[in-house]
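Case 519 in the screening queue. Each case pairs one protein sequence with one candidate compound; here the compound is 6-O-phosphono-beta-D-fructofuranose. For every case the pipeline is the same: read the inputs, emit a complex structure as tokens, and attach any notable structural observations.

Predict complex for case 519.
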Amino acid sequence: MSTHTDSSPWKALVAHQKSLSGQSISALFSDNPERFDHFSVEAAGLLLDYSKNLVTAETLELLTNLAEEAGLQKAISAMFSGEVINTTENRPALHVALRSPEQNTEFEKIVHSTLDQMESFVNKVTSWQWQGCNGDPITDVVNIGIGGSDLGPAMVYEAMSDYHLDGIRCHFVSNIDPAHLEQTLEELNPATTLFVIASKTFTTLETMLNAQAARAWFLNGNGNEQDLGKHFVAVSANVDKASDFGIDPGNIFPLWDWVGGRFSLWSAIGLPVALGIGMDNFRALLAGANEMDIHFQKTRFETNIPVLLGLLDIWYTCFLQAESKAILPYSQKLELLPAWMQQLSMESLGKSVDSDGSVIDFSGQIIWGSAGTNGQHSFHQLLHQGTHLIHADFIAVAKVETDKQEQHEQLLANCFAQSHILMCGKEDDDPHKKVLGNKPSNTLILKKLYPHSLGSLLATYEHSVFVQSVLLDINAFDQWGVEAGKTANTHIYAAMTSTDSDESFDPSTDALIDYLKKL
Ligand code: F6P
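Case 519 output:
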């Protein structure tokens, strides 16, 4: 059992939670007419309204005590100064260096030289100086990667559609299912397509198989081996493997073991984003994240957005037994945010032992969600009237450039209506129609959705996950469960494809393999 649960701040929170039993969030507003002012904070272009939570000033004070007891400030400094905080892999976790404007440390210097390498490449491609095998400019970029080498860039590219450069489209292929690559390539011309093979390790099965299939597609489409360099570049920490694949070493953009896959968007893994929106906009994304980094590092816990979000998550997970959290962007452009958030949180906090290897009582939350208003016509029913306690983050964009302002205002009204009803409920004599309310939520508002504000938003969530990891005493930067799945796949694939394998797994899996073999 983690020692954190034995600490006095933890015990104080358990007692406090009992004292709040039966309390309604609406009543907390009646008790404190200035609750919104007290429970909202603005920084780095974001407003966080956390007033619709089942918390009082005392709850927040106790959660802050818990953070202090867990050594959160020291942990933040350790991360920013490059200490080896990923202890099971013996590395720092220095994604914050990827967006630092400074060039003091060795880490920062190598980051900036890579940004310059990216800039020169992006400028060549987007100004049509980079020519494909027939002398034509590149019109389509296909990023082949999975997990962190896919979700972040795909999400940001979609979110930044207002900034897409004319004449170049980006596509993202991740799934090992051949249909994903085939469907993507259907309308593309090999002579004007550039593949970015994005893999930190350059060993990930899905990415390697898709990269080989893309190579074959290019060669079958009249390309020849000598032209591969004009159509394939890589982002990887494994230069040898990328070169073995046939990528010109000058076109391998580096990545380092001190950048975790799910935190790698800010590195050259963001190359398809930079190609799609231009390097200046990519740098603006980094600047927004850096502004949030400074806020996170320098602001006291009481008004620190990522700290508050992380503490509230801990409150619901550990003290109110809420296992799941919904991420609800009221912005079609942010449709992929829940998927990015899923990997960020669930791969980081999905652990069952603490840093010493002792079994813990609480891991991270189940993260899910979709773009509003679509979810309102599907799963929101369970949020409103189901018996589960599910807390939610509503994310809205205040201003958009559209000639359909009425529709945009309707979108925002829907967002506010949902969090209002979740909290206040609805009286009705008919029990079927009554909505109990008292369901908590945060609302995050971006004044505008542009590279800078998106960078701030994403860095906020990265840090809120880190805060939770410190309070739960979990290493947020490894993923040994995923590795176990990869090893099992190697054995099962061998058993499935060989005629004389006698390897046995479990009765169900053995039977499934037999069934397939018979088919
Ligand atoms: O899913 C496990 C994982 O290791 C992620 O953490 C990572 O983002 C993804 O695989 C892809 O890894 P790579 O970039 O090495 O191909």
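Case 519 observations:
- The longest strand covers residues 390-399.
- The pocket of 6-O-phosphono-beta-D-fructofuranose is lined by residues 146-149, 199-201, 204, 207, 261-262, 347, 479, 482 (CB under 6 Å).
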